[in-house]
Amino acid sequence: MGMNEAGVHRAEPNRAISRFWPSDKLIFAYFTFTAAIEVVWFRHIPQAAWLLALHVIGVVLVVMAERSVSSNRGVVFVVRVFRHWYTLLYVACCYREMAILIPAIRHTSADRALADLDYAFWGVNPTVWLERLYSPALTEFLQVIYTLFVPVVLLVPFLIWRRKRYSDFRYMAFLLSLGYLASYLGYLAVPARGPRYLLQHLQHVPLQGVWLFHSLQATLDRLETYHYDCFPSGHTELTVLACWLSRSVSHRLFWVYFLYTICIVFATVYLRYHYTADLLAGVVVALVLIVASPALYRGLSARGDSIGD
Fold this sequence. Notes:
The chain is globular. It has one domain (4-300). It is 69% helix and 0% strand. The longest helix is centred in the N-terminal third of the chain and has 29 residues, at 77-105. It is built from 13 helices and no strands. It has helices spanning 22-40, 48-71, 77-105, 111-122, 126-129, 136-147, 149-162, 166-189, 195-198, 213-224, 234-246, 251-270, 276-300.
């Protein structure tokens, strides 16, 4: 990625650009889109008024943080941290919001179409075929890999933050936030819950782990609630993005992320969370964002933050 070699500034956070950053504009645009949905389908969306209020509160907090940081007058550390990290917090809230919006306004499911697409390409249902590789130890390992998704994705920007490469961090936060939000729009356009629900009656062997499998899966189910979050595979998309960004930390870390990416892509199908069509869509979205994001970031930058290509 070569961010550091491209002349990225290591400015302190309280010397950051005194206008809205590309990440801010991305969040504002997404909030505007989802708020419009909530206004149009107000009577059909549970807690629509509360969701709209949260949008307003979220924007107000960003504006207040921006003014505090740009004033450059003894900014409290927590405000500086929020100013840089908030987008990665907000996208988690947006995920929960989409879990409310999709069932309320999308009264259809793409599961059957995605399963048929998989079967037409492979000649089998991949999750059923993979039963021949089943073992409790492998199931346990892959569930741990799958569960570590969020910490693994956030580790790269955290390491960059610790090195005080704040311009690099802002670009990473933008790219990862854009990746998350793009996947949410995919969920809305192509609502699907996954093969572990649609194809459950075809599976011959229930997945069993060794120690942690059931507790980890149950925890993820509680966090994700009843969600249509298959297409594209956010786990695939965001892990590919994180793998790409890890190059700016070290080549050794990149290879660790490369191996993790292979494992999590396999885990999404083996654990019956995703159709292979979801994986392909996730890879395509990630590649498009990797190519398009630098130009988009520069176009949204008030003073053209330096980034590496």
